[in-house]
Amino acid sequence: MAQEDLVKVTARGLYCAAGDFYIDPWQPVERAVITHAHGDHLRGGSSEYYLAAPGVSLARLRLPPEAVIHPLNYGHSMNFGETRVSLHPAGHVLGSSQVRVESAGQVWVVSGDYKRDPDPTCLPFEVVPCDVFISEATFALPAYRWIDTTAVARDILSWWHENRRRGLASVLFAYALGKAQRVLAELAALTDDFVFVHGAVAGLTDAYRAHGVAMLPTLPATVAGKADYAGALILAPPSAAGSTWMRRFGDHRTGFCSGWMRIRGDRRRRGYDRGFVLSDHADWPSLLRTCHESQARRILLTHGYTDAMCRYLVEQGVDAAALRTEYGAEE
Amino acid sequence: MRHFAALFESLDTTTSTLAKIDAMRAYFEMADAADAAWAVYVMIGRRAKRSVGPALLRAWMSEEVDLPGWLIEETYASVGDLAETIALLVPNDPENKRTSDLSLTEWLTARIQPLASLDEPAKRRHVVGWWHELSYRECFLVNKLLTGSLRVGVSRSLVTRALAEFFAQPRAQIERALIGEWQPSAEFWGQLGRNESNLQIAHPYPFYLASPLEGTPERLGARDNWLAEWKWDGIRGQIVRRGSQCVLWSRGEEIITDRFPEIIDAASLLPDGTVLDGEILARVGDVVLPFAQLQQRIGRRKLTPKILQQIPAQFIAYDLLELQGEDWRSRPLRARRARLEELLLDASTPILRLSPAAPGGSWEALVAMRASARSKGVEGLMLKEWQSTYGAGRQRGAWWKWKVDPFVLDAVLLYAAPGHGRRSNLYTDYTFGVWRSAELVPIAKAYSGLTDAEIRRLDAWIRRNTLEKFGTVRSVPPIQLFELAFEGIASSSRHKSGIALRFPRILRWRTDKPVAEANTLADLQELLNEQRPHDAR
C-alpha cells in the first residue's frame, strides 16, 4: 500500500501533517521550519521559527524584533509530532539548510536552495540519503553550467583593476544576502584592498563577519566624495541600479554577479556592462548529480525549470513530478 | 582570432559609446590590415555568401550533444541564439583559456568560405571539429561568422566614427566608401586610410533618412521654408547612371537592377553621370498598387511579361545627388529639386516621375492633407527644409517623416513563444486573436511595444498560467487584452483568419477593458472592404 505523502503543497506552503509544521511557508503559520533567510523563503508573521543556528542572526535582521526563533544545530534531530526533523547544510548561503523529515520508516528531504560549488562563507552541501527528495530547479536547463569560482573572482578583480586604470568606479551588483559576502570572501584570497558597500549589504556583512567569515574590509558607501570612488569597487544590491543612490559614484561601470549571466541575451537585456557567472544555486550537472546521490526513489521539483528537469528525469526512468510553489527565481 | 575575440569581448562588455569607439580604435591600431578590413565588414553587418545554414548547425548540434532533442530545443528557445546555444552545450573550454592562432582573415577566407564547395559530411567534419577545439567564446564567434549574423553592439555609424577618428578622415568619406559592394582586403584598408578613390563606377551614395516627427509641425517655423511631399509606400532606391551603366540600388545596399527592367530602360534616358534618389512603386498610371503586390513581384524568381504587365513599376524621384559626374549633395534642396525637375522633363518618360509637392499652403492645410493620406495610398507626408543639404544616414533636423496614424484594434493574447537576443529567456513573441462568434481566431503576431517591466510581468503571468505547451509555444487563458497598431490590411489565403496585417505591434496592455470587447473578425473584414477600392485596380 502506498504511503501517505509526508510533505505536501498547501495554500500556505509546504506542509508536513504528521509533524504539524510548515517548511518555508509563504503565509503566516504556527510552526515554520526555515531553510534560509532569503525573502521568498523566510516571511514574517509566523508564531515560531526553527532554523539552523548560523542563520539566526541573518533572520533577526529580516524579521520583526518580537519574532520567536529557535536555533537548531546541523544534524541534531528533534521531535515534531510523529516525526523526527533535522537540518543539514545546503551550501547556499550562511545557515542554509536542507530539512530532513523522518516518519514511520520513510525519509523525506526538502533541499531549499542549494549549490555544490565551494563557498568560503558557508558549510558545504551534505548529501542526505532519503526516499523522497524535494529539490529546487532554478537553473535546471543544460545551458546552465557554472565556471570555476576562482576564475570568476579573478575576472572580477581584473575588471575592477582595469576600470581603476581608467579612473572609473566599479559598481558590482550582487544579492545582499550571501552573494555579496561570497564575493568579498573570494576576493580576499586575491587582494587586501577595501570595498565600499551599500547599506543593505553592510549589516548582513557584519553578521557574516561576526560568524568568523574572512572577507575584504568594507566601508559604507556614504562616507566618501565622488573623487574617492574613482577606482573603487562598490557592492550593491540589484535594486540600487538606476536609482539616485548611484549618482555619487561619478563615472563608473556596472557588473552583475548571477547565474542568469550565463546567457548573453539576459545580460544585454538588463543593461549591465559586465555579467559574472556566479550562482548560489546548483547548475544542471549538479542538480542531476545531487538527485542521484540522494538515492531517492522519488524526486519532486520546486521553482525554476521544473518541467524540463521533470520530463528529463522521467525519461531516465526516475519517478519525478513538479510541485507548484511560490519561491522565486531571483538571484 | 584572438585579437578579434578580444575586440568582441570589449564591445560586448560595455554599454558606453566612447568605450566602444576606443576599443575599435585600439583594434585598428594593432590589427593586420586585412583583418581590420574584415572586422569592419563583419561589424557593419555585411556577410559573405553563407556556406552553412542554421538548419545544418542545429542538426549537428543534436548529434554532438548527449541530450534528448526536446531538451536541446527547449534550451535553444530559452537561450534565444543558435550560436550561443551550441557554444553552451557542446563540451569546450568554458573559461576561454584556449585561443586560436589563426587570424580573422584566415578563419574567414581559408576555413569558413571554402566550406561552400564541400559536401555535407566534409562540412560537418570541419565545423564539429572547430566546436570541440575552440574555447566557449571563440566557438560562439565562429558560429556567428558561419551563420553571418554577428551583432556586436555597434551601429554602422559608430564604426564609421571610429574609422574616421582612426584615419583622421572626414566621416562622409568613410561612409561613402563603406556602402555598395567592396571586398575586404589589405588593399581596401590602405585605400581607406589614404582616402583614395577606390569606388566602382556604379558606387552609390549613402541614403539620407528622415526622422519621425513628434507632435505638430508648427514648431518647424514658417511653412514656406519646407517642402511637403507624400510619403510613398514602396522601396527606397537609388539610380546610378554612369558611363555605359545604369544600376538600381535598394536602401539595403543591394543591386536590384534585374528586378526592374522598365525602370532601367527609362533611366538610361538620363544623361551620363546622374544619380537619383527615389521610391520604387508598383503603379498603373496614377494608381498605386498595394505594397503587397510589389513584394510579390520582387519574390518572383522570373519576371514574366504577364507580371510586368500586371504589376508595373515606376520610380518616383525625390532628389538629385549627382549631375554630370559632380556631387550635388551639398547644394540646397531648392536647387537640387529645380534641376531634377528639368532633368525629368527632358527624359520625358512616364516611368520616372518627380515626387509631387503636396498641396497645402499652411500647416493647418497640411494637417488635413495628412488625414487624407490613407485614401491616396500613401503613408503620410515628408517634410524637407528647402535649405537642406543631402545628408547621410539618419541626421535629425532637416528631414522629417510625418506618418498617418496607424490602424488600431483590440485583440486577446492566445499564445506566447520565447524571444531572441535581448529577449531570450522571456516569453515575448505573442499571438493575438479576435472574435469570430464565440471563438477567438489568431489575427496577428507582435513582438514589440511593451515596456521591460510589462514584459517581465506578462512573462511571469504566462509561466504561471500556461494551459498547454506545443514545443516551445504556450497557450494561455484568453483573458489578457491588448491594443495593437498596424499599418495596413490585406486579404490572405495563408492565414486562418483570411486577413494579414502589416507591421502589427502592441500599443498598450488594456487591463481596463474586458476581453469580450475585443474586436471581431467582422470589424476587420469591414476595414478590409473599405481599403479594397485601391487593391482592386
CATH superfamily of the largest domain in chain B: DNA ligase/mRNA capping enzyme
* Main sheet specs of chain A: 7 strands, mixed
Count of DSSP H/I helices of chain B: 20
In the CATH classification, which architecture of the largest domain in chain B applies? 2-Layer Sandwich
Class derived from helix and strand content of chain A: alpha/beta
Quaternary organisation of the protein chains: heterodimer
Mean of residue pLDDT of chain B? 90
Which pair of chains forms the biggest interface, and how many residues does each contribute? A-B, 26 and 33 residues
CATH class of the largest domain in chain A: Alpha Beta
> Biggest β-sheet of chain B: count, sense, barrel?
7 strands, mixed
Q: Could you list the spans of chain A in which at least 5 consecutive residues all have pLDDT below 50?
A: none
Approximate shape of chain B = globular
What would you give as the CATH superfamily of the largest domain in chain A?
Ribonuclease Z/Hydroxyacylglutathione hydrolase-like
**Name of the top-level CATH class of the largest domain in chain B:** Alpha Beta
- Report the portion of residues of chain A in β strands: 25-35%
With strands numbered from the N-terminus, the spatial order across the biggest sheet of chain A is 7-8-9-10-11-18-19
Percentage of residues assigned to helices of chain B:
25-40%
In total, the number of strands of chain B is 22
Q: In one word, what is the shape of chain A?
A: globular
Second-tier CATH architecture of the largest domain in chain A: 4-Layer Sandwich
Order of SSEs of chain A, N→C?
EEEEEHEEEEEEHEHEHEHEEHEHEHE
